[in-house]
Automatic annotation (TrEMBL):
Record protein name field: Aminotransferase
Transmembrane segments: none
Transferase listed as a keyword: yes
Keywords: Aminotransferase, Transferase
Length: 210
C-alpha cells in the first residue's frame, strides 16, 4: 500500500491558517510528482470548514492525510504549549541524502522512527537533528534547521537530504535566511541555533550536551 501524503497545519486561536497557501501548493506538487490524485479545491474547502469547527480559544494542530486514490482525511487536535527552553540533540546515525522520499512529507519515514519513539518522553528536547553520509547537516525529524554564522542565518539546501518545509520557504522568500551547506562542526561554532515548522514557527533552541 502506498504511503499517504501529509500536511500538518497550524490553526490559530482565532481560527486562521497562516501558511495554508504554501501547504496546498506543496501537497499538490508532491501529489503530481508521486502520482497521487489531488483535488486541491475540495481539500481547501474542507480544511477551512474543519478549522472553524473546534470550540474554545486554543490553537489546534490540523493533519491532512492524502491517499494515492485522492481520498483524504482531516484531523484536528489541541496544540499544547512548549516549555520555555527547547534543546536539540544530534542524531547518532546519518541519513542517506540520495533517498528521494526525504524531499516529500509522507507516512513512510522509517529513518525517523527511533526519534519519533524517543522524543515524547523527553519534552525538553524539541527535536533530533540529522546529518547525512557526507557529514552535512540535514534537518530535524519534525523541523528544518538554521544556524547563525557571522550575522547571517543559513539553512541546508534540499540536496543535503531534507524536506522543504513551508515555514522554511517563507523565511527564504522573505530573505531572512539563505541556503548553505552546513557541517556538523558548525553546530558548535554557530552564534545561534533555530528550528522551524508550520506549527511552532521559527524558534530558538540550544544544543544539548551530555
Amino acid at each position: 500500500m502506498a504511503p499517504e501524503l501529509i500536511e500538518t497545519l497550524l490553526v490559530t486561536a482565532d481560527r486562521s491558517l497562516p501558511l495554508l497557501g504554501r501547504h496546498l501548493t506543496r501537497l499538490a506538487a508532491s501529489a503530481q510528482a508521486l502520482g497521487y490524485h489531488c483535488d486541491e479545491a475540495a481539500i481547501e474547502r474542507d480544511i477551512l470548514a474543519a478549522a472553524r469547527a473546534p470550540a474554545g480559544l486554543e490553537p489546534y494542530r490540523m493533519r491532512v492525510l492524502l491517499e494515492r486514490s485522492g481520498r483524504y482525511d482531516i484531523q484536528t487536535t489541541p496544540l499544547a504549549p512548549l516549555p520555555l527552553v527547547q534543546e536539540i540533540l544530534l542524531a547518532p546515525e546519518p541519513l542517506d541524502s540520495r533517498e528521494p522520499l526525504l524531499r516529500y512529507k509522507t507516512t513512510f519515514r522509517p529513518w525517523y522512527a527511533k526519534a519519533a519513539d524517543w522524543l515524547p518522553a523527553h519534552p525538553q528536547i524539541f527535536d533530533m537533528v540529522f546529518f547525512n553520509e557526507k557529514g552535512q547537516l540535514c534537518e530535524g525529524s519534525r523541523s528544518n534547521l538554521y544556524l547563525l554564522l557571522h550575522g547571517q542565518w543559513y539553512t541546508p539546501p534540499v540536496e543535503c537530504g531534507l524536506l522543504p518545509g513551508v515555514q522554511r520557504a517563507e523565511l527564504l522568500e522573505t530573505g531572512q535566511v539563505r541556503e548553505r551547506v552546513l557541517e556538523v562542526d558548525d553546530l558548535r561554532r554557530a552564534d545561534g541555533l533555530r528550528l522551524s515548522n508550520a506549527l511552532r514557527g521559527w524558534i530558538d533552541v540550544t544544543l544539548h550536551d551530555y
